[in-house]
Amino acid sequence: MDFEPYRGELLAFCYRMLGSFHEAEDVVQETLLRAWKARDRYDPARASVRTWLYRIATNACLTALEGRGRRPLPSGLGAPSDDPEAPLAPALDVPWMEPFPDARFDVQARADLRLAWVAAVQVVPARQRAVLVLRDVLEFTAAEVAEQLGTTVAAVNSTL
Questions:
Q1: Which of 11, 79, 107, 126 has its CA 20 to 30 A from that of 58?
Q2: Mean pLDDT over residues 69-96, rounded?
Q3: Is 149 within 8 Å of 47 (Cβ atoms)?
Q4: Whole-angstrom Cα distance, residue 159 to residue 132?
């Protein structure tokens, strides 16, 4: 079973979910490793390889997101200062959003990988983010998304 043709689209999906290109690469590696280890349990009657890989990737992303708090965005890094004349002190420990490298996709295919879109979707809770990306960006059916997330079609539509 060859998973390599799906690597690029899984990387884009994980980037949309995590907001970090480097974290997305790690999660894609984890996804492909999990898929390889479970390849003998894959049932083509239940789902396509693509849907199965997205289910694994979604779970890996949700697990990665559970381990960290909300990512701060440049516009919401802290409370307003009492002294407007005070010099700005950068917080060097803040994990910033990372743009997706231009060399990975052509410009037309990158429309939904724009940093502003990825930054905006980061404020949405992780499961809701997964539903949004899987349904509206990747155009999976509500039934496919429900199966991937282990929920119902009604819950997917309500979350969306």
A1: 107
A2: 55
A3: no
A4: 8
Question: Helix, strand, or coil here: 15?
Answer: helix
Query: Of 109, 99, 14, 106, which is closest to residue 64 (Cα–Cα)?
Result: 14
Model confidence over 97-149: pLDDT tens digits? 666 665 555 545 555 556 677 777 788 888 998 998 888 888 899 999 998 88
Signed CA dihedral, 42, 48, 50, 53: sign only: negative
Task: State how far the alpha carbon of 77 is from the alpha carbons of 42, 92, 139, in Å.
Answer: 44, 12, 33
Distance, in Å, from the CA atom of 44 to the CA atom of 114, rounded to the nearest integer, reads: 34
The CATH number of the domain where 151 resides is what?
A: 1.20.140
Domain that holds residue 123: 4-73+98-159
Domain count, the chain: 1
Least confident span in 30-34, 55-59, 69-73: 69-73
